[in-house]
């Protein structure tokens, strides 16, 4: 751990572990609160509606027809946003509690409140370090989740196509 020069290494490791536990815990909560299969289904429907809307626009459909088709998309968008907000309402307070209450308490009890970490930017505080690690872990997990969801979506589409062809 060459990059962690000012803050003792064991404390930096503890902060990384806290960030990993937070990221994995909130990931699990998000997956439980929002149904990924339903989200993929909504995305598929929205994509199909968008394709139809684009074709209608290219073919010169009347404004009323386009508006009527757009109104069919709105409930899908509302459902999608509701699922995303549901998990954000749970995850954000957990982050704020860790960032504003647990970490400062932990820092003061272990005596490293004024210590800094030379990681990415010089003189990073322990809270900034926690935020950075959580952000990096979140980006990595998001990439893996997107790949997994894309694969699942393709499998579901293949199964659906097979069922329709029979």
List the main descriptive attributes of the protein structure presented here.
166 residues, 82% helix, 4% strand, disordered N terminus
Question: What is the topological layout?
Answer:
Elements: H1 9-33, H2 36-58, H3 63-110, E1 117-119, E2 121-124, H4 126-165
Antiparallel strand pairs: 1-2
- Total helical elements: 4
Main beta sheet: 2 strands, antiparallel
Low-confidence stretches: 1-5
Widest sheet: strand order?
A: 1-2
Roughly what fraction of the amino acids lie in strands?
under 5%
Q: What is the compact description of this entry?
A:
With 166 residues, this protein is mainly α.
Give a structural overview.
With 166 residues, the chain is mainly alpha-helical. It has a domain at 9-38 and 85-165. 82% of the residues lie in helices and 4% in strands. The protein is built from four helices and two strands, in the order H-H-H-E-E-H. It has helices at 9-33, 36-58, 63-110, 126-165, and strands at residues 117-119, 121-124. It has a two-stranded antiparallel sheet with strand order 1-2. Strand 1 (117-119) and strand 2 (121-124) form a beta hairpin. Helix 1 runs antiparallel to helix 3 (63-110), helix 1 (9-33) packs parallel to helix 4 and helix 2 runs antiparallel to helix 3 (63-110). The longest helix has 48 residues, at 63-110. The radius of gyration is 23 Å and the shape is elongated. The relative contact order is 0.15. Residues 1-5 have low confidence and may be disordered.
